Amino acid sequence: MSILDRFRLTGKRLFITGGSRGLGREMALAIADAGADVILVGRDVPSLEKTAGDIRALGRQAWTVPGDVGIPEQCEAACNIALALGPIDILINNVGGRRENIPTQDMPLDKWRALMDLNLTSCFLCTKLIGKAMIDRGQGGRIINIASINSLVAGKGIAGRHYETAKGAMLQFTRATAADWAPHRITVNAILPGGFMTEPNQRWSKLHPEVIATFRSQIPMGDFGQPEDLGPLALYLASDASRYMTGAALVIDGGYTLW
Prior knowledge:
Elements: E1 13-17, H1 22-33, E2 37-42, H2 45-56, E3 62-66, H3 72-84, E4 90-93, H4 109-137, E5 141-146, H5 162-181, E6 186-193, H6 199-207, H7 209-217, H8 230-238, E7 249-252
Parallel strand pairs: 1-2, 1-4, 2-3, 4-5, 5-6, 6-7
Helix pairs in contact: 1-8, 3-4, 4-5, 6-7
């Protein structure tokens, strides 16, 4: 067997939240390129259809489920729609974002709860529902949680500490679930991206250019990552190549957290 065969995903199915743009799109394309079919969930229908078309061009099946998984009811509905399509082998909890630059002392409770639902509750619900189906099926599975380097360190020069809180909790949820589900041959790992110039960060660069400039200046490799840099790492965690890795937190940040 070639070592590359360990990375093949022929016959597998991926469910990914926020899979139509940015990091999610690149992870979905990488996993489809390795042979998996893909269910994409997102709020923007045109970008969902664009990414689904690109996946189909690779010879894979693709389904789109429009919805906002930051709203618990819509998150549960999206999972149930996906499960009705058939078994899911790979789950990527990708949805999230800081979105707000509100200091802790000024953060309204309803805003805090909504942002926690976006960044943490969505991960819990998808893991609960799709992970349960993996357990019941008895064939193992792969769960990949997209956390952040802010799981480990606070962002500099920016407020909105709901993000650090949720991503830190996501990391510990990853570890605890990994321990619980290892006997079921379900691996649960986290990717902790640093600075990537996705659409949200492009907006931040316009609204708060000083924050982005400071961030870039503190990256040892000298620049932000590209979304496609995340695809190979997601593929590794989704494939049999990583079968003995679970509960891991893999940082990909150009060295930012080394200082």
